[in-house]
Amino acid sequence: MAEPELVDVVVVGLGVGGEEVAGRLAEAGLTVVGIERDLVGGECPYWGCIPSKMMIRAANALAEARRVDGLAGSAEVRPDWAPVAKRIREEATDTWDDKVAVDRFTGKGGRFVRGSGRLDGANRVHVGDQVFEARYGVVLGTGTRPSVPPIDGLADTPYWTNHQAIEVEELADSLLVLGGGAIGLELAQVFARFGVRVTVVEAADRVLAVEEPEASEIAAAALRADGVEIHTGVRAERVAHDGTSFTVHSGDRAFSGEKLLVVTGRKAHLEELGLDSVGIDCTQRYLPVNERMHAAEGIWAVGDLTGEGAFTHIAMYQAGIVVADVLDHVRRMKGGPDASGTASVMGGAAGVVSAVGGSMSAGGSAAAPGSVPVADYRALPRVTFTDPEVGAVGLTEQQARARGINVQVGYTDLTSSTRGWIHKAGNAGFIKLVADADQGVLIGATSVGPAGGEVLSALVVAVHAAVPVSQLRHMIYAYPTFHRAIEDALRNLK
Ligand SMILES: Cc1cc2nc3c(=O)[nH]c(=O)nc-3n(C[C@H](O)[C@H](O)[C@H](O)COP(=O)(O)OP(=O)(O)OC[C@H]3O[C@@H](n4cnc5c(N)ncnc54)[C@H](O)[C@@H]3O)c2cc1C
């Protein structure tokens, strides 16, 4: 084994979160080693957000063309997957090559190492034959992988995860989707709009089970209108593959498809990271962190790994906090003032290093002025990019009631809003508001509609900044926008 090489910070896993942290710390002048075993950029650009949204863009174009009838004449639609696959290959992923991303990181001054990193004590990381010792700390951003349920027979079949679904060049005749969460529904609708016979099998009693029941209903109805068969409350017990098709068995029911896509959740793999060497329980589903992303002394974690929400915007938000906190830690170790301006007990103020004195514009909520921001997930937004889009922020009605909050709910149907009525075909949607009646503020909201994810932004501001409901009622909402329905929902709060 090689002698350990001393560097400032080691970042293990260069997905969305890790790459952001590693790049910004390198730009701040630290010696940063970034370790990635697969592709720099992680799941989002290669098998997640970006290619899936390109697929959705294409599928929605087909759906809009099919709505020409009755609105603007007639249109003949002949779906072709080839341009979608080409766009994903050429524009999104460079045929799953991360050269551009590696260059982006090294261009910021980072040192890139390809391989699997593993902790060996708080500040040592092994990768292949190399060992790095981190002077200031280690940041873990190793993300998650699909969590494949232990269903009898499944492991031996050539089932798909999101990777194969995104990489597909030629569509099958039929597709069975195990899991009716956000990813399952988005992909199911895409493939159905391209002519694939899609069946969704979901164990919970409704799809999109984490969102408001009204959202589940509308999403299910939209997918059914696209020809998707949806079966809820079905626990898959056995999977068989006969060489050409899959069958999922549940009691005396059976569902078949040429391909089987398993999207039943995701899981961090703590056991691979050597966390036992720092006394962390590796059997947990995620790596718990505090509000400054500390997992243990000298170890930070960022992104999906932390279990705070599997979204790119969470990884980026947490990355901002990690960057600020690591730089603060460096200053204090060098004996400079911490971010609140207090000189560290480790020495005088003389050691402040200008190289790390830069970027402090992290994400995170404002703590005391000048101090490192801390994470606040109250106004965590999430969007399922089905058509209609399902946008949500904060608590659902049920979550708020379970917390004993004095809840008021305001609901309005988008089809009865002026813009919804004008929009006509494809206008399904609603706004649902959840208010804390005692505080007089919104604590959650759902916005479903053709632009549900965009309309959501106003509601995120309201929840994030705790804007009084009385003020929201006296805002001016542009006519005739979809977001104007927020005013109707506010009027209906009771
Ligand atoms: C189909 C799909 C669609 C999605 N759509 C959206 C969306 O629309 N909006 C949104 O906000 N989010 C979306 N997401 C979620 C988003 O992709 C993730 O939240 C985001 O990628 C998380 O970033 P991360 O850095 O935490 O982890 P990842 O992107 O998973 O990156 C972790 C990296 O660590 C590497 N790694 C793991 N272990 C090691 C090790 N020991 N050593 C070295 N490297 C290691 C992995 O190879 C990987 O590259 C989607 C996900 C999927 C699957």
Please provide a written account of the structure.
The chain is an alpha/beta fold. Helix content is 29%, strand content 22%. The chain is built from 14 helices and 22 strands. The protein has helices at residues 16-27, 43-47, 49-66, 82-92, 99-107, 162-167, 182-193, 213-225, 312-333, 397-402, 418-423, 452-464, 469-473, 485-491; strands spanning 5-12, 32-36, 111-114, 117-119, 124-127, 130-140, 145-146, 174-178, 197-201, 229-231, 238-241, 246-250, 253-257, 259-262, 266-267, 294-296, 299-301, 381-384, 389-394, 407-413, 430-436, 441-449. α7 (182-193) links the parallel β8 and β9 (197-201). α1 runs parallel beside α9, α3 (49-66) runs antiparallel to α4 and α3 (49-66) packs across α7. It is globular, with a radius of gyration of 24 Å. The chain starts with a strand and ends with a helix. The protein binds flavin-adenine dinucleotide. Residues 12-13, 15-18, 35-39, 42-44, 47-49, 52-53, 116-117, 141-144, 162, 183, 272-273, 303-305, 310-313, 315, 385 line the site of flavin-adenine dinucleotide. The site of flavin-adenine dinucleotide has 38 residues, from α1, β2, α2, α3 and α9.
